[in-house]
Amino acid sequence: MVNAFWLDRDLERTARWLVDRHVTSSVFECSMVLTTAIQLNGYPESPPEAEGRDLYFTHPDHPLTRWAARSYDNWRLLEAYTRAAHEEWRYRWDHESDDRHGCWATVRSLDADAVRDLEWPTDRSEDPPQVTGRWTADDVVDAYRYYYANEKRHLFQWSKDRSMPPWIPDYTVPEDGDRSDDGGE
Questions:
Q1: Residue 100 · residue 28 · CB < 8 Å
Q2: Alpha-helix runs per DSSP H in the chain
Q3: What's the rounded Cα separation, in Å, for the pair 162 and 157?
Q4: Which of residues 46 and 174 earns the better pLDDT score?
Q5: Using CA atoms, how far apart are residues 11 and 48, in angstroms rounded to an integer?
Q6: Residue 90 has pLDDT above 60, yes or no
Q7: Is 116 exposed, middle or buried (0-12, 13-18, 19+ CB in 10 A)?
Q8: Which residues are CB-neighbours of 79 under 8 A, at least 6 positions away?
Q9: Average pLDDT of the chain to the nearest whole number
Q10: Angstrom distance (rounded) from CA 6 to CA 141
Q11: What are the extents of the domains in the chain?
Q12: What is the rounded distance in angstroms from the CA atom of residue 18 to the CA atom of residue 30?
C-alpha cells in the first residue's frame, strides 16, 4: 500500500519518527507517486534526462497520487517529505552524503523547470489526504498519529539513536477504540 505518514508539520521531525521500515518505504513509494503524479499532468514517461529509463508509474487512482497531481504545491510538499525520508535513510544506515536511493535518484533527475511548468489542475495547496482507515481527525497530523500509534505498533523499531515518538502514549486508544477526545470518527 502506498502512503506517506504525516506525523508532524516539521518534515525532518516526521522522518526521525518514522519506524525503520517506513523510512525506506517512504523513499520508495513516494518517489513512485511523485513520478506518476507528473506523468498524469503531461510529463513524458521517458524524458531525455532519464537516460533511457522510464519513470515509475503506479497507483494513479490512489488518494495520495491524486492529491500530489492536483497542484504543484502539493507535489512539492510530497517531494519535501520524500527528501526528508531520504536524508533519514542515509543517516540510519550510514550511507555516504552522495549516496542516493535509486528511486530518489530518479526524482532528482527530473527537469525541475518542466515539472513546475506543467498544467497543474489547481494553484492552491491542500492538506494531504488521510489514508488512515478508521483513524480520522480534523487535522491530518492527528489522524496519522492515531493511525501510527494504533495500527503500526507491530512495526515499532527504530535504529541508531532514534526512538519511539513522545506522543505515542497520548494517541494510543484502548482496545475498545473509544476516541472521544480527538474530534474524529
A1: no
A2: 11-17, 20-40, 63-70, 72-92, 102-108, 112-116, 140-151, 168-171
A3: 9
A4: 174
A5: 31
A6: yes
A7: exposed
A8: 34, 107
A9: 90
A10: 6
A11: 11-171
A12: 14
- The string of pLDDT tens digits covering residues 5-42 is 999 999 999 999 999 999 999 999 999 999 999 999 99
Which burial class, exposed, middle or buried, applies to 148 when counting CB atoms under 10 A from its CB (0-12, 13-18, 19+)? buried
Q: What is the mean pLDDT of residues 94-107?
A: 77
Distance of alpha carbon 50 from alpha carbon 53, whole angstroms = 5
What is this structure's pTM? 0.90
Question: Tell me, what DSSP letter sits at residue 53?
Answer: P
Q: Give 126-161 as a DSSP string.
A: -PPP---TT---SSHHHHHHHHHHHHSGGG----TT
